[in-house]
């Protein structure tokens, strides 16, 4: 089988995440070639582009027109994801990769999905942890006789308060703990419960802030399986998950964000409490994600499944917001 040529990609948004995570992942992947940078800060974009040996452009449309890029990666603030996606699709980009959250609400997400389908393009919301070998090992374990299928799950992602100027505290930029931190445990719950019509009970806390800074939700499916999720800004760092099955339990260290060298084994707990380690290979989950996108970008079944997962996640995010009991 012939090796597919590298695809070209434009990155829009030059914040810390793009600089520290996204651009190095593209450089590390043999399947992608950086075609250009787009930023509202032209001087910064020109300097960074010169460092990387690529071009700087004022708009996504200009970058796609000049480079014929195969993909656009949106790494800017959540509030500009919708407009950036529409601009990329209108410019003819066949693949649009968008950092989570895809939009600021389900209406934006559905609009983006509909436009991508009409454009015969792949729209992908970044859930990089689901491309890590750890996640693959977790799915195998849950389906094995050792665990016996999911009965109940728990996951939390939280971190201490950030400087007050951080965009996460600004509603106009798409801030808030649900969209920044809650997406992680909720996406895990929706995936492992298989999507569908999930019942949601939720709570939200704001305190003195203009956005939500903490929240929790319990998701339940028609078979009585449940998943408890919690998230927040302003508490100790937590990045954990635990899945209880009919025969055993699996504890997941750092299921969401993890350094490339991280390989702490999953812990399998038998029905009577006995523990065994389940190893997996270390990997950079963003490089793995980019490699998978290259491999599957032309696969219509894979693209349809990716769109279905986005729709299922945002249906739950909308229900969390609508049902949340608010305090503070």
SSE blueprint and pairings:
Layout: E1 7-12, H1 16-28, E2 32-38, H2 42-52, E3 55-57, H3 60-67, E4 71-74, H4 81-90, E5 95-98, H5 106-118, E6 122-125, H6 133-142, E7 150-159, H7 177-193, E8 199-205, E9 214-220, E10 226-233, E11 238-245, E12 249-253, E13 266-269, E14 275-278, H8 285-296, H9 300-323, E15 325-327
Parallel strand pairs: 1-2, 1-4, 2-3, 4-5, 5-6, 7-10, 8-15
Antiparallel strand pairs: 7-11, 8-9, 9-10, 11-12, 12-13, 13-14
Helix pairs in contact: 4-5, 5-9, 7-9
Describe the structure.
With 328 residues, this protein is α/β, with parallel strands linked by helices. It folds into two domains: 7-126, NAD(P)-binding Rossmann-like Domain (Rossmann fold, 3-Layer(aba) Sandwich); 129-283 and 323-327, Dihydrodipicolinate Reductase, domain 2 (2-Layer Sandwich). The chain has helices spanning 16-28, 42-52, 60-67, 81-90, 106-118, 133-142, 177-193, 285-296, 300-323; strands at 7-12, 32-38, 55-57, 71-74, 95-98, 122-125, 150-159, 199-205, 214-220, 226-233, 238-245, 249-253, 266-269, 275-278, 325-327. The strands form two sheets. Strands 14-13-12-11-7-10-9-8-15 form a nine-stranded mixed β-sheet, with helices on one face. A hairpin with a 5-residue loop joins β9 and β10 (226-233). α5 (106-118) packs antiparallel against α9 and α7 (177-193) packs across α9. The protein is globular and about 60 Å long. It starts with 6 loop residues before the first strand and ends with a strand. The model has no long low-confidence stretch (mean pLDDT 96).
């Amino acid at each position: 089988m012939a090796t597919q040529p590298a695809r070209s990609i434009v990155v829009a948004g030059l914040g810390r995440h793009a600089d520290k995570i996204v651009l190095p992942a593209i450089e590390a992947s043999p399947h992608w070639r950086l075609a250009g940078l787009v930023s509202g800060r032209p001087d910064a974009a020109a300097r960074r582009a010169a460092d990387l040996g690529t071009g700087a452009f004022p708009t996504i449309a200009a970058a796609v027109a000049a480079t014929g890029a195969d993909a656009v990666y949106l790494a800017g603030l959540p509030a500009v994801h919708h407009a950036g996606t529409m601009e990329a699709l209108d410019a003819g980009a066949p693949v649009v990769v968008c950092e989570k959250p895809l939009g600021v609400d389900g209406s934006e997400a559905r609009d983006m999905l509909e436009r991508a389908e009409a454009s015969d393009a792949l729209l992908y919301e970044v859930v990089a942890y689901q491309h890590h070998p750890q996640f693959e090992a977790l799915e195998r374990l849950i389906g094995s006789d050792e665990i016996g299928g999911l009965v109940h799950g728990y996951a939390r992602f939280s971190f201490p308060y950030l400087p007050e100027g951080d965009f996460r505290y600004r509603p106009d930029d798409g801030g808030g703990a649900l969209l920044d931190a809650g997406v992680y445990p909720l996406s895990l719950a929706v995936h492992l419960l298989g999507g569908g019509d999930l019942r949601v009970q939720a709570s939200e806390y704001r305190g003195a802030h203009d956005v939500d800074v903490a929240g929790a939700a319990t998701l339940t499916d028609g078979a009585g399986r449940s998943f408890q999720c919690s998230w927040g800004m302003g508490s100790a760092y937590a990045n954990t998950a635990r899945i209880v099955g009919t025969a055993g339990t699996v504890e997941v260290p750092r299921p969401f964000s993890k350094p490339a060298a991280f390989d702490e084994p999953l812990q399998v707990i038998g029905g009577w409490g006995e523990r065994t380690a389940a190893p997996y290979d270390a990997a950079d989950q963003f490089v793995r994600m980019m490699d998978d996108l290259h491999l599957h970008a032309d696969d219509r079944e894979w693209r349809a499944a990716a769109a279905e997962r986005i729709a299922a996640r945002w249906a739950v995010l909308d229900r969390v917001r609508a049902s949340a009991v608010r305090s503070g």
